[in-house]
Design a protein that fits this description.
Chains A, B: One of its GO terms (molecular function) is FAD binding. Chains A, B: InterPro entries: FAD-bd_oxidored_4_C, FAD-bd_PCMH, FAD-bd_PCMH-like_sf, FAD-bd_PCMH_sub2, FAD-linked_Oxase-like_C, FAD-linked_OxidoTrans_Type4, Oxid_FAD_bind_N, Vanillyl_alc_oxidase_C-sub2. Chains A, B: Its cofactor is FAD. Chains A, B: Belongs to the FAD-binding oxidoreductase/transferase type 4 family. 2 copies of one chain form a homodimer. The first copy, chain A, contains 16 helices and 18 strands. With 478 residues, chain A is of the alpha+beta class. Chain A has 3 domains: 119 residues, 2-Layer Sandwich (Uridine Diphospho-n-acetylenolpyruvylglucosamine Reductase, domain 2), CATH 3.30.43; 119 residues, Uridine Diphospho-n-acetylenolpyruvylglucosamine Reductase, domain 3 (2-Layer Sandwich), CATH 3.30.465.10; 186 residues, FAD-linked oxidases, C-terminal domain (Vanillyl-alcohol Oxidase, Chain A, domain 3), CATH 3.40.462. In chain A, the strands form 4 sheets. Chain A has a 7-stranded antiparallel sheet with strand order 15-12-14-13-17-18-16, with helices on both faces. A 5-stranded antiparallel sheet of chain A has the order 5-6-10-8-9. Chain A has a 4-stranded mixed sheet with strand order 1-2-4-3. Chain A is globular, with a radius of gyration of 23 Å. Chains A and B meet through strand 9, helix 8, strand 11, helix 9 and helix 16 of A and strand 9, helix 8, strand 11, helix 9 and helix 16 of B.
Amino acid sequence: MAPGATLRIMSRIEAPRDDATAATGDLVGRLLGALPADAVLTDPDVTASYAHDMASFCPAGTPAVVVLPRTVEEVQHVLRVATELRVPVVPQGARTGLSGGANAHDGWIVLSLTRMDRILEISPVDRVAVVEPGVVNATLSRAVREHGLYYPPDPSSWETCTIGGNIGTASGGLCCVKYGVTAEYVLGLDVVLADGRLMSTGRRTAKGVAGYDLTRLFVGSEGSLGIVVRAVLGLRPAPPAQLVLAAEFPSARAACDAVCAIMAGGHVPSLLELMDRTTVRAVNDLARMGLPETTEALLLAAFDTPDPAADLAAVGALCEAAGATRVVPADDPAESELLLQARRLSLTALEAVKGTTMIDDVCVPRSRLADLLDGVERVAERHRLTIGVCAHAGDGNTHPTVCFDAADPDESRRARASFDEIMALGLELGGTITGEHGVGVLKKDWLARELGPVGLEMQRAVKQTFDPLGILNPGKLF
Amino acid sequence: MAPGATLRIMSRIEAPRDDATAATGDLVGRLLGALPADAVLTDPDVTASYAHDMASFCPAGTPAVVVLPRTVEEVQHVLRVATELRVPVVPQGARTGLSGGANAHDGWIVLSLTRMDRILEISPVDRVAVVEPGVVNATLSRAVREHGLYYPPDPSSWETCTIGGNIGTASGGLCCVKYGVTAEYVLGLDVVLADGRLMSTGRRTAKGVAGYDLTRLFVGSEGSLGIVVRAVLGLRPAPPAQLVLAAEFPSARAACDAVCAIMAGGHVPSLLELMDRTTVRAVNDLARMGLPETTEALLLAAFDTPDPAADLAAVGALCEAAGATRVVPADDPAESELLLQARRLSLTALEAVKGTTMIDDVCVPRSRLADLLDGVERVAERHRLTIGVCAHAGDGNTHPTVCFDAADPDESRRARASFDEIMALGLELGGTITGEHGVGVLKKDWLARELGPVGLEMQRAVKQTFDPLGILNPGKLF
């Protein structure tokens, strides 16, 4: 981002009230030049409701205007106006993000893509779907199922989050251990650039290496390089329904040993999830699921193979060899779905413990997973905090979730400190500060630490290349 | 690339002989400051042998020097010297590329990475390998097999080509229909930048979204953004040995119909390859394989599933429904391997037809595959040429291979024209000019056509960001 441009933007935002009002009036007038009135919201009570996503500790302000375009041309118009007037733009989907990446600030334009929600094509032969960014993940997943196809990425918020948001944050989910993250399903994009020009990247073919892979550059860029207005997504054939096994362990380390044995043994589970005791209890408290509260760690493994029962038996044996005290395979898909529901409730349940959470997203090589979980326990003890851990264990991707009372300043301070210490530990173990939630505002100091000075400089140079005026979601990532 | 820098470089190359000799002496002296004498080759007979890869119609010259570093520090030294003296650098692996991307010009530095050929780590738990760029694909593939692991990318040249070259060209192979291309296995990179600084990108974890995905930006960048000196590669568990089926069709269109039916039917073959009659005959002529010469198209399908015979039976039925005149499943892995060998010999066999080939690499949505093959036949008729087609049919990725006598100027002209017409047809059908071979020199005019002006401008801007002086393999891609 151009430092000069940022300074201009900031002084604009901090201008005296009268100037700001006049500027907003000008901005809204220009936007209405090519957008219908119902697509331009300015009531501060309404615009304030678009201020932030679901992350804690991330600053946000009241945007000057929320625009809800329905067409590519309308998005182009918004960007042209933003460039002319040097007003920052933050694109938003369902605002289910967990890093503040979609947060707005005073005077900004919120560009909500939720009305661009058409599924334009589903092709079983080409195994692709072409969609607008506002399509809800679950809507797409169900639509492709009707064609015998499967769109794997399944973040916890899949019933509400949008494909555009998934692309912006490169989000993951439970499926990743077998099927990978969102990035692996984005074949091509139409992107509106900072100055309003439209660029196509990638392809709708199974393969393609024509030029630099700008498609992947946009995936996970949190709206800081351009606005995705159309995506070609790769699909897979729908697999058989998965069967789930639950295994109880006397320690998190024993559960992690089982994870390593399963993966080193060449198994390909369709999910491999871990819930620690704190998480199990929180889920029981919230939803009376009847999960085993005496266990230190609950491991869920699933297979969507032709013979899932045989695969579960093999994996169950590995769990027992690693010290599992109890191994319970689900009898049928319905019982399996119940266990997955428990896992999906984890973050909501942990939020109920003390009212507020900070959800970390550290990913380590899976051989270091046990070291990470032991370390998180020490951090929790040192700071006298409850930190529940649920994890995409097969990926080494953990969500240590710090539970705290936001009204208690000291506890809040300790929560923030423990959150940071967990990231430091993740880096020390050869991991990354974010496996699937993105950097946003929450982790931008940590991004610099992970990338190092040369990496950071080149990432900033890429930002500068695509957004020389610094109007695309400035202050995120870096 | 900076136009000014290019001009400087070009005038340097074209300088009078005495100046050029003096400049080369200076360059070699500087290189020897931190490289052992056996790593700096200047004998013109030797350096000339590093001039080009395996593509036809691509200009090349005699490099001033070939350097063969063994360490990252030595590569950094080479880049520092190149930056100071403004001498272009072309990185090379085994020079098996098919687009001229590794071609050198007079006065350039050839940076051969073949001596950096260590496998640094193989981890069955983390399912990663860490390698230097000069490791040969087959060497890595065999090494990971010993750990029960699988590195899928398998270009036809896999016995000689290097991982660094595979990364530079984002190469594919027979495996892609199930396992994807090289890009999908590159998790993290160490890259020496144009000015000699070292940058790490990506991760060695299963997931990670910290910052922009610069790893993928380097994959397929043909050495034009930086020099890959170390790669973290993702691995899979070794699948069971695959079983192959051969199906004979009375027309290419019928074979393509079978491909569409197989893919729309939700099958996941581990390969799905097509050889047209010209290719079948060429392979028989070369290697007396006894393939059926009366067929218009031979389709090879394979499965590496737990029950490949059952999968082959289902696919065989779809082939028959699409009009196959004969369906022959292999009885065992050895028979399967013979069929694959026939497929792997295709390009070599077609080269023997008239002495020289131009191998195209057009990829279309697989629903348009039949239209492409019909079009190629029309192009061959119009230009009175033999064009054999072998194809990764499951990906819609075809290699129409123009056979011609390079000593015949008119035939050569027609060969080049037909090559271009096939790319035009590919674009018209919604495809790309290159599925897996890259752009290099051969297709750079066509890249501009595929990307369009905005895409091209942004790709050039990315080049400029990473290589402001234009010393990294200039004149490739754009």
